[in-house]
Design brief:
Layout: H1 3-16, E1 39-42, E2 59-62, E3 72-75, E4 81-85, E5 94-98, E6 106-107, H2 109-113, H3 115-120, E7 125-130, H4 144-158, H5 160-163, E8 170-175, H6 177-188, E9 210-213, H7 226-233, H8 239-244, E10 258-263, H9 272-283, E11 288-293, H10 313-323
Parallel strand pairs: 5-7, 5-8, 8-9, 9-10, 10-11
Antiparallel strand pairs: 1-4, 2-3, 3-6, 4-7
Helix pairs in contact: 4-6
Length: 330
């Protein structure tokens, strides 16, 4: 961890200590039962920025036929929020987790609620992000998910003391389209995409490390995932818009260290997405660890990797995070 980054985050955190905590009503995550989060934390007081005249209606669709194995997809997220998972023995680290879903839905179980216990068992406080979907009528559609991710990082730091978190040890992890959001946050954490609403917005949105897992990166065909591209940018984006929202075009020396995972047989998001991002990181001298698996397909998360070499990715990530000082115990 670079000392300048720690000072930057801590100065922001100290500036936010005198702030009163938000008191707006909290929205519950969908479902209740074993494995569900401990708490929900709304990102915005009142309406989220750019709310449509006719706001979307949140809908939860259960896609699994096995009642013991949930696979819920959420659309119409009108109150973006964090689902909090507290570890039994917190070690000060926190992770913002962004599930995928092609920017058409947020797949909360296999790329969110199933990831949280893995990290919490290592003492990491986990926040799963329910972010707004860009194709549902919000103003400034292409920046809507990033606005929620930036606000989430700042709110986690603003509430660090409440949750026993070191504000200089907050990372980000995302899957598929959530991997794009993770990479977008890692490269555009300081770009203003919403008007500040309270003191939390004085804090840094930069993750100390980022793990885009089988991420969408490019917004330019043929490498781009067509569905994510259309949902984020509309049907006929110009080249400038494609470049602005392609994280590999926005890497700088301030981009945090990254951990990349992809399967070479991915039929949905070509492995070239991760390779483009890796190349851009290397060119800027940003530390990057990359793991490519011959088999795994797309969207494997944890459950889909069982019995395949790709099942090694969580252990590889944890070892990398520990080597970087993010995990200090276990």
């Amino acid at each position: 961890m670079q000392e300048i980054d720690r000072r930057m985050v801590m100065m922001g955190a100290l500036g936010g200590m005198a702030l009163t905590q938000p008191t707006w009503a909290q929205t519950s995550p969908p479902g209740a039962g074993t494995g569900d989060p401990d708490e929900a934390i709304d990102l915005w007081p009142g309406n989220a920025p750019g709310v449509p005249v006719k706001p979307p209606v949140e809908t939860v669709t259960e896609r699994s036929s096995n009642p013991a194995l949930r696979d819920r997809a959420v659309t119409g997220i009108v109150r973006p929020r964090l689902a909090l998972f507290r570890p039994a023995r917190p070690n000060g680290a926190a992770m913002l987790v962004m599930p995928g879903g092609g920017y058409q839905r947020v797949v909360i179980d296999k790329e969110g609620y199933e990831i949280a216990p893995l990290l919490a068992a290592r003492g990491i406080t986990v926040f799963v992000l329910f972010y707004r979907l860009p194709g549902e009528g919000w103003a400034d559609r292409s920046n809507v998910p990033l606005a929620d991710a930036q606000r989430a990082m700042r709110l986690i730091r603003a509430r660090a003391k409440d949750h026993g978190i070191d504000p200089a040890r907050v990372g980000a992890m995302g899957f598929s389209a959530g991997g794009h959001l993770c990479a977008d946050l890692a490269t555009r954490f300081d770009q203003r995409v919403y008007a500040p609403v309270d003191g939390a917005d004085t804090l840094s949105a930069r993750p100390v490390l980022a793990a885009p897992i089988y991420p969408v990166i490019s917004m330019t065909p043929p490498v781009a995932h067509a569905g994510s591209r259309e949902m984020l940018l509309g049907r006929a984006p110009n080249m400038a818009l494609e470049r602005l929202h392609g994280p590999h075009h926005n890497v700088s020396t301030a981009t945090p260290p990254c951990f990349l995972v992809h399967a070479e047989d991915d039929p949905t998001v070509p492995v070239e997405n991760s390779l483009l991002f890796r190349q851009a990181l290397k060119e800027k001298g940003v530390p990057v660890e990359t793991h490519l698996f011959a088999e795994g397909g797309h969207g494997f998360g944890l459950r889909g990797a069982v019995g395949k070499p790709a099942a090694a990715w969580p252990g590889l990530f944890l070892a990398w995070a520990k080597a970087r000082g993010f995990i200090t115990t276990g």
